[in-house]
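Case 414 in the screening queue. Each case pairs one protein sequence with one candidate compound; here the compound is magnesium ion. For every case the pipeline is the same: read the inputs, emit a complex structure as C-alpha cells, and attach any notable structural observations.

Predict complex for case 414.
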Amino acid sequence: MTAADASARYWAIVPAAGRGERFSSPLSPIGVSVPASRKQYASLAGASVIQWSLRALLREPGVRKIVVSLSPDDDHWPVVAAQIEQECPGAAAKLMTCIGGGSRQESVLRGLQALQSHAAPRDWVLVHDAARPCLPAADLATLLNSLRAESTGALLAVPLADTLKRVSADGGLSTVDRSGLWRALTPQAFRFEELERALQDAARAGFAVTDEAQAMERIGIRAQLVAGSADNIKITRAADLLLAARTLSSQRGAGMRIGQGFDVHAFTEGDHVILGGVRIAHRRAILAHSDGDVVIHALCDAILGALGQGDIGRHFPDTDARYRGADSRVFLREVAAMMSHAGLRVVNADITLTAQSPRIAAHSPAMIAILSQDLQLAAERINIKATTTEKLGFIGREEGIAASAIVMLEPAAA
Ligand code: CTP
Ligand code: MG
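Case 414 output:
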C-alpha cells in the first residue's frame, strides 16, 4: 500500500449560501417547528446546524483555513462566528468568508477564488455542505488518509441499501438494479487547480452539477469513493433536524438522562410563603437565604443532577450576597439555559411537596404555569402533588417544609 501524501496541505470550503427552500416548504411534516431563518442557522442540539458542520472541520488540525460561502443578504454569520470563537478561542482565525452564488457550484467556485492567494495548485480542497452537521471525525480522518500523492480526489459515500423504483410517465413501476449505486456525501476532496478548472468549465458550458465529483467527471478526472457513515445526513427538510439531533446525541454518547432533587427549609415568623414561584398567604414564612422556594430548588437540583452538574448550592452559593432574598425563578431559568446549551430538554417533571401546611391544591395550576414558562415546557409535562406527614416529625409539627423532584431529559431537536 502506498503511503498517504506526506506533503499534503488541506483547505476547506463550506457552501452555506442556499435558501433552504425544501426545508421551509409547507410540505414539512406537521409538529416540526420550522425556524424562520435558513436551515444552516436552525437550532440543533444547543448550537446551529452550520456550527456543528464547522466543528467537524475545525477539530481536524490538518485543515488550514475554511472558507464559508455566504448569501449576500446573510445577517446571521457574525453571531455564529462569535459563538465559535467563544467556544474555542483562536478558531475564528481559521475561518474566512466569501459571497456565494445562485447555485451550489457557483458558491464553491467563489470559495476557490477566496482561497486563490493561500492554496497551491496541488493542495487538497475539501468541500463540505453547511447542512451536514453529523460528519463523524473518523470519516473525515479516513477521507484524508485515502488521499495519496498520486490520487486525483475522493468523496465520502454510502452504498444504497433500499430497493430502487423508477416511476414512468404512465405511472408504471420498474425496479432499478442497485448494484454499484452509492449515495454521494460530503466532504469531497480535489486538487485546487483541477477543481477550479472543472467548475469553471461546467459554468462556461452552463452545465449544472449537483456535487464536485460530477464536475470532475465532466473533465475526465475520476474520484475514489470512500465508504462513510450513513449518520452524515444532509438537512434538507425540517424533519431531518430531529434525526440529526438524535444522531449527534448518540455520537456524543448522550441519550435520555434522569435526575432527582430534594430540599428542606425551616419555617419562621411571617405571613406568606413562595412555592413554585407563587406567593401563598400563610401564618408562617420560609427561613432561607433566597426566597426559600423548595419546589423550584428541588426541581433545579433534579435538572442539574440529570446534567451531571452538581447542585444548586454549587451554582448559586448562599454565601454570595447576590442571592440574598433572590427570586428562585432566576435560578430555574439559568438551569434551563444550561440544559438547552447541553442540547437537552425536559421530557417530564414530577414534584412532591411535603408539608403539613399550607394546602397547595388550589395553587398548583398557577405553579405549573410558572414552571412551564421558565422551562419552556408544555404544562401537561409537569406534575405537582403534595402530601402531609400525618403530623409526624418536623414537617408534621409545622417546623419546616420539604419538596422532592424527579425529571427525565432527552436530546433536544432544536
Ligand atoms: N448552497 C450554496 N449556494 C447555493 C445553493 C446551495 O452555498 N446557491 C449550499 C447550501 O447552503 C447547503 C449546500 O449547498 O449547505 C447543499 O445544498 P442544499 O441542501 O440543496 O441546500 P439549499 O439549496 O439551501 O436547499 P434547497 O435546495 O431546499 O433550497
Ligand atoms: Mg439546493
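Case 414 observations:
- The radius of gyration is 28 Å.
- The pocket of magnesium ion (ligand 2) is lined by residues 18 (CB under 6 Å).
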